[in-house]
Amino acid sequence: MNTQRKQELSNTIKQKAKKLGFLSCGISKAEFLEDEAPRLEKWLNEGKHGQMKYMENHFDKRLDPTKLVEGSKSVISLLYNYYPQELQQEDTYKISKYAYGRDYHFVIKDLLKQLMQELQAEIGTIEGRAFVDSAPVLDKAWAKRSGLGWIGKHSNLLTKQVGSFYFIAELIVDLDLAYDTPVTDHCGSCTKCIDACPTQAIVEPYVVDGSKCISYFTIELKDELPTEMANQFEDWAFGCDICQDVCPWNKFSKPHNQPLFNPDQRLLKNSKEDWKEITKEVFNEIFKKSAVKRTKFEGLKRNIKFINQK
């Protein structure tokens, strides 16, 4: 395929992604992630994934998309905004903004399927798979490689125009395309995310110890919460946005326009007392089809009880 045709195809993909509501789209060559391999191996060897044992699985596939999707030639990375119109009231138990509305896995997977169908209708047979944080794909590494942003000191992807409150998804396909190039790092000497983390989970710039992160404790950890973390959650009952909230680049965040991400009003208005007294029935109503279901009713109650320990 000649260079002009590759560029045309890439432009078509980006235009269609934009029409479907994606913030941006970048494309990189499907190949072994040479730079990430030693970093991932070191991170796992040092146990920074805590009890997230699934991170140890499919090491080769995590680093090489051609092992994950046979015949793949390109990784199409996409960003989808989730910054909410309204935030929770002050002085309440906090839910991470990404989980305010419908579970993003389903919303974005549907959009990716639609994008794939539109591309097949226009271009012809395309083999590939869609991924939304649900398989061994290093989302941030691919998004960085395809020029959608740089990895910040808090290890999240950052983009100049929009900050970091977005989901990352991929289509890994068998098309030869025109590839984008990475952007430069714009964190500079700023250490706001490192300074603000109450559990010191950002152990050095660009390295997060997942086993110390409030999101890990409130979502991933199924055991009792460690007593040494008492009084350090700053009222976060599901997930944590502290490192993103303090990031200067997030002053550029604009509200999403995805109705499915709009929360039940009780999530925004509930006081601490309301959360303490929440019943399973009300939990199921507020978080119907929400990512908060991952921690379950008992998990949310456990987290709130832990925050209240003095």
Automatic annotation (TrEMBL):
Keyword field: 4Fe-4S, Cobalamin, Cobalt, Cytoplasm, Iron, Iron-sulfur, Metal-binding, Oxidoreductase, Queuosine biosynthesis, tRNA processing
Positions of the 4Fe-4S ferredoxin-type domain: 175-207
Source species, domain of life: Bacteria
InterPro entries documented for this protein: 4Fe4S_Fe-S-bd, 4Fe4S_Fe_S_CS, QueG, QueG_DUF1730
Entry binding sites for [4Fe-4S] cluster 2: 197, 213, 240, 243
Coiled-coil ranges (or none): none
Cofactor: cob(II)alamin; [4Fe-4S] cluster
GO biological process per UniProt: tRNA queuosine(34) biosynthetic process
Residues forming the catalytic site: 133
UniProt binding sites for [4Fe-4S] cluster 1: 187, 190, 193, 247
Biological function: Catalyzes the conversion of epoxyqueuosine (oQ) to queuosine (Q), which is a hypermodified base found in the wobble positions of tRNA(Asp), tRNA(Asn), tRNA(His) and tRNA(Tyr).
Protein name: Epoxyqueuosine reductase
